[in-house]
Amino acid sequence: MRLRLLGVSLCALGFLAMTGVQAGATGAGSSADPVVTNFDSEIRVERDGLLKVSESWKLSNVTGTFTRFVVTRDHLADAVDHVQKVEDLEVKSGGQVRKSELSVKGDVTSIAVADVSGDTQLDFTYTVRGAVAKVLNGTEVRFAPLTGVNLTIQDANIVFSTPEVSHVSCTAGALDSNTPCTLAQIGETAGPTFRQQGLPPGNVVRMTVGFPDGEIASNTIVEYRKTFKRAFSTDTAQLITALLVLLLGAGALLALYRLRGRDQVDPRRVVPASLFSLGQDTRIDFTPPANLRPGEVGTLIDERIDPVDVTATIIDLAVRGHLTITELEHESEYSRPDWELKRVAGAPSEELQRYENVLIRAIFGDSDSVLVSELGKQVRAGLSQVQDALYDGVVKRGWFTERPDRTRSLWATIGIAVTVVGVVATFVLALFSSWGLLGLAITAVGVGLLVIGRHMPAKAPAAGRVLGQVAAIRGELLEMDVSELPTDQHAELCSRALPYAVVLGGSERWIDALVATDVDDDEDEGFHWYRGPRGWHLQYLPDSLRNLTTNLTGALFTR
């Protein structure tokens, strides 16, 4: 507290220096120093703790603005301040009211009276609220009316008018001094009396008057300093409220997921299914169950359209004879590879899914061929229509009750809104109260909504059997002995299975099966759906398809 008063008084003296004409400056030709010859104060303590103060300042050789200070903020532990408020101020000189300026700066309240000249007397009256604090055995008035005055005070007398008093104390001198005042006593017929003679400039007089319990009411004004610890208080009320919000929020998120986001199917269920079936004349037919397409399979599994779904669809369209992929000759060993995608004029008459038609139009537009390196903004813009068509398709099949992308977008919007509310609430509550933890709890619930929103698209019961079939197909793609396929259909059936393996896994073993069809050292043209450049061999197919996938993804999805 004493170090705090040091800063207070320095601030007060600095304020005094900025008033323009320093109090205590002498007139021209005067040899006497400006002083306060007498300071007399009577303080009446009301039962409700209000202090009624009357002061008389006798000034000598003072010219300019006279400023006096009162310490009105006491800093305690745990970011707590006890505050005193000076009110109802009136200053008179010679019976005439003088204009005065009351201001609060930091820990000090200052009262300035301008145009003071020569020898004069100033009479102050004011009230003080907040000076009575509760102590162990009663209450205490703690008041420091003389603080940092830039003049010597030759004689100071303070008399209290009070009910029964239990104890008194008074210190005077330097800011960190514990030196007792010249006089501090409890009179038999009068109230407590204090006196200090010869108080140097900038020194302080502090008084304490104690009362038995029940005599004087405490009227302490408590304010809290803005600290991180205070703003995010872990007191019982704040902590329990924040934890309650977190628990209720977590319960609401769990209930929301169980009601709206949990799949209505068992993803572990396996339904007998195969990509291959025995046809006429012992031939093997490629018959994906429910006429599933690779893009639909990928969307059904993870409820979103990924680049691999679109790339697998392009390969599937090529394998089914709707377009061809031709790898162009490399200008040099280090040049970037490129491919020509070409529409097939006599494509099979099978009915394409809507998203497949939209994808073909997005790739080719009005032309019949396009280079992968030239797939630009027009194709990327058309991909949104492909995604719309694919999402609409899985809803039309009854696998979802509403489009997964719109479900995610809805809950993401709600999550962002709750998070923003939480962040704003945290800032406001931390700035103006000690309930910052409550704002953090709300923010955490918002973040939880953002996380759970990604899992909110729920598969409908109709998707259950299809998912079981997809599980069986994945097992077939990963474990089937490819050598069991008929030799004359080996390349055709491996090519048909490849797009599904790209989505479900195991694409390497099906590409290797295609490479295994190369039985000589001569250069190869490739297949009806993929052709290599001059000097190309099937052994290059893994690298060619890997580069094709990378370049297609970059061309279609890089912004």
Automatic annotation (TrEMBL):
Stored InterPro entries: YciQ-like_C
Predicted membrane protein YciQ-like C-terminal domain span: 287-514
Signal peptide extent: 1-23
TM region positions: 239-259, 410-429, 435-452
Highest taxon listed in the record's lineage: Bacteria
Alphabetically ordered keywords of this record: Membrane, Signal, Transmembrane, Transmembrane helix
Protein name: DUF2207 domain-containing protein
Source species: Kribbella qitaiheensis
